[in-house]
Specification:
1 helix; mainly alpha; about 90% helix
Length: about 35
């Protein structure tokens, strides 16, 4: 695997984790407000 591909994969992984962690409380808040 090339260096660029590895960096891109790491970037996607970190972005996905951060987005998931950031969105989980938001989704919970929205569900609580709607419900």
């Amino acid at each position: 695997m090339s260096k660029t591909a590895g960096m891109a994969a790491a970037l996607c992984l970190v972005t996905g984790i951060m987005t998931g962690v950031a969105f989980t409380p938001l989704i919970t808040l929205m569900v609580n407000n709607i419900g």
